Amino acid sequence: MRTKKRTGAMPPIVTVIIIVASVVAAALAAYFIYSTTARGVRQVSLTVIGQPTLYARQGGGVELRVTFKNDGTADVDLTNSIISVQAKNKTVVEFTNPSSPTKGDLKLAPGDSVALVYTANATLDSFPDGALATLQTAGGYQTSFAVAKP
Asked: CA-CA distance, 143 to 79, in Å (whole number)?
Protein backbone atom coordinates (compact mmCIF):
# COMPACT_ATOMS: atom_id res chain seq x y z
CA MET A 1 0.00 0.00 0.00
CA ARG A 2 1.27 3.41 -0.87
CA THR A 3 1.20 6.25 1.58
CA LYS A 4 0.70 9.72 0.33
CA LYS A 5 2.06 12.73 2.08
CA ARG A 6 -0.69 15.17 2.93
CA THR A 7 -0.24 18.61 1.52
CA GLY A 8 -2.06 21.82 2.33
CA ALA A 9 -3.28 20.90 5.80
CA MET A 10 -1.97 22.38 9.04
CA PRO A 11 -1.62 20.48 12.26
CA PRO A 12 -4.20 21.55 14.89
CA ILE A 13 -1.57 22.92 17.29
CA VAL A 14 -0.34 25.41 14.67
CA THR A 15 -3.91 26.62 14.13
CA VAL A 16 -4.36 27.17 17.88
CA ILE A 17 -1.06 29.05 18.15
CA ILE A 18 -1.98 31.34 15.25
CA ILE A 19 -5.43 32.10 16.72
CA VAL A 20 -3.98 32.85 20.19
CA ALA A 21 -1.29 35.10 18.67
CA SER A 22 -3.94 36.95 16.65
CA VAL A 23 -6.11 37.54 19.71
CA VAL A 24 -3.13 38.81 21.74
CA ALA A 25 -2.05 41.14 18.91
CA ALA A 26 -5.60 42.50 18.57
CA ALA A 27 -5.81 43.09 22.34
CA LEU A 28 -2.47 44.95 22.35
CA ALA A 29 -3.54 47.11 19.41
CA ALA A 30 -6.86 47.94 21.09
CA TYR A 31 -5.11 48.85 24.35
CA PHE A 32 -2.62 51.09 22.51
CA ILE A 33 -5.40 52.90 20.63
CA TYR A 34 -7.44 53.36 23.81
CA SER A 35 -4.54 54.62 25.93
CA THR A 36 -3.26 57.11 23.36
CA THR A 37 -6.76 58.43 22.70
CA ALA A 38 -7.55 58.78 26.41
CA ARG A 39 -4.26 60.58 27.03
CA GLY A 40 -4.74 62.89 24.04
CA VAL A 41 -8.30 63.84 24.98
CA ARG A 42 -7.45 64.85 28.57
CA GLN A 43 -6.66 68.53 28.19
CA VAL A 44 -6.96 71.69 30.25
CA SER A 45 -9.22 74.45 28.98
CA LEU A 46 -9.48 77.46 31.29
CA THR A 47 -12.18 80.04 30.67
CA VAL A 48 -12.22 83.49 32.22
CA ILE A 49 -15.60 84.21 33.78
CA GLY A 50 -16.67 87.83 34.03
CA GLN A 51 -14.26 90.74 33.62
CA PRO A 52 -10.83 90.48 35.29
CA THR A 53 -10.24 93.78 37.08
CA LEU A 54 -7.21 95.59 38.51
CA TYR A 55 -7.60 97.35 41.89
CA ALA A 56 -5.24 99.49 43.95
CA ARG A 57 -4.32 97.80 47.24
CA GLN A 58 -4.29 99.58 50.55
CA GLY A 59 -0.67 99.91 51.56
CA GLY A 60 0.56 99.97 47.95
CA GLY A 61 0.60 97.65 45.02
CA VAL A 62 -2.07 96.37 42.67
CA GLU A 63 -4.30 93.33 42.87
CA LEU A 64 -5.90 91.49 39.97
CA ARG A 65 -9.21 89.77 40.64
CA VAL A 66 -10.16 87.08 38.15
CA THR A 67 -12.40 84.00 38.06
CA PHE A 68 -11.37 80.89 36.12
CA LYS A 69 -13.44 77.86 35.14
CA ASN A 70 -11.91 74.58 34.02
CA ASP A 71 -13.90 73.59 30.92
CA GLY A 72 -11.38 70.89 30.00
CA THR A 73 -11.18 67.21 30.82
CA ALA A 74 -8.02 67.28 32.98
CA ASP A 75 -7.27 68.80 36.39
CA VAL A 76 -5.32 72.07 36.52
CA ASP A 77 -3.31 73.39 39.47
CA LEU A 78 -3.22 77.19 39.81
CA THR A 79 -1.11 77.21 42.99
CA ASN A 80 2.13 78.62 41.50
CA SER A 81 0.55 80.31 38.50
CA ILE A 82 1.70 83.71 37.25
CA ILE A 83 -0.23 86.35 35.33
CA SER A 84 1.82 88.70 33.17
CA VAL A 85 0.16 92.02 32.34
CA GLN A 86 1.48 94.52 29.82
CA ALA A 87 1.95 98.00 31.29
CA LYS A 88 1.61 101.35 29.47
CA ASN A 89 5.36 101.54 28.87
CA LYS A 90 5.27 98.10 27.13
CA THR A 91 6.99 96.31 30.02
CA VAL A 92 5.53 93.22 31.63
CA VAL A 93 4.41 93.21 35.26
CA GLU A 94 4.06 89.79 36.89
CA PHE A 95 1.19 89.14 39.27
CA THR A 96 1.97 86.29 41.66
CA ASN A 97 0.76 84.69 44.89
CA PRO A 98 -2.72 83.59 43.84
CA SER A 99 -5.14 83.28 46.72
CA SER A 100 -8.80 82.47 46.95
CA PRO A 101 -11.06 83.94 49.61
CA THR A 102 -13.46 80.99 49.29
CA LYS A 103 -11.35 77.95 48.36
CA GLY A 104 -8.17 76.75 50.04
CA ASP A 105 -7.08 74.31 47.34
CA LEU A 106 -6.28 75.90 43.98
CA LYS A 107 -6.50 72.64 42.02
CA LEU A 108 -9.49 72.73 39.68
CA ALA A 109 -11.18 69.53 38.57
CA PRO A 110 -13.07 69.58 35.25
CA GLY A 111 -16.15 71.79 35.66
CA ASP A 112 -14.87 73.61 38.78
CA SER A 113 -14.37 77.36 39.03
CA VAL A 114 -12.49 79.60 41.45
CA ALA A 115 -12.20 83.34 42.11
CA LEU A 116 -8.57 84.36 42.62
CA VAL A 117 -6.67 87.44 43.73
CA TYR A 118 -3.14 88.01 42.36
CA THR A 119 -0.84 90.77 43.62
CA ALA A 120 1.98 92.85 42.12
CA ASN A 121 4.21 95.73 43.21
CA ALA A 122 3.09 98.43 40.79
CA THR A 123 0.72 101.37 40.60
CA LEU A 124 -2.73 101.24 39.09
CA ASP A 125 -1.89 104.16 36.80
CA SER A 126 0.86 102.14 35.07
CA PHE A 127 -1.74 99.91 33.33
CA PRO A 128 -4.00 100.88 30.44
CA ASP A 129 -7.64 99.86 30.49
CA GLY A 130 -7.96 96.65 28.47
CA ALA A 131 -4.34 95.62 29.03
CA LEU A 132 -3.33 92.19 27.71
CA ALA A 133 -2.78 89.58 30.41
CA THR A 134 -1.44 86.03 30.09
CA LEU A 135 -1.89 83.30 32.71
CA GLN A 136 0.82 80.66 32.89
CA THR A 137 0.46 77.66 35.18
CA ALA A 138 3.31 75.68 36.69
CA GLY A 139 2.27 72.83 34.37
CA GLY A 140 2.85 75.00 31.29
CA TYR A 141 -0.73 75.83 30.29
CA GLN A 142 -1.27 79.40 29.01
CA THR A 143 -4.30 81.52 28.26
CA SER A 144 -4.64 85.22 27.44
CA PHE A 145 -7.33 87.75 28.33
CA ALA A 146 -7.85 91.49 28.77
CA VAL A 147 -8.07 93.22 32.14
CA ALA A 148 -10.10 96.31 33.09
CA LYS A 149 -9.66 99.09 35.59
CA PRO A 150 -12.50 100.46 37.74
From this structure: 16
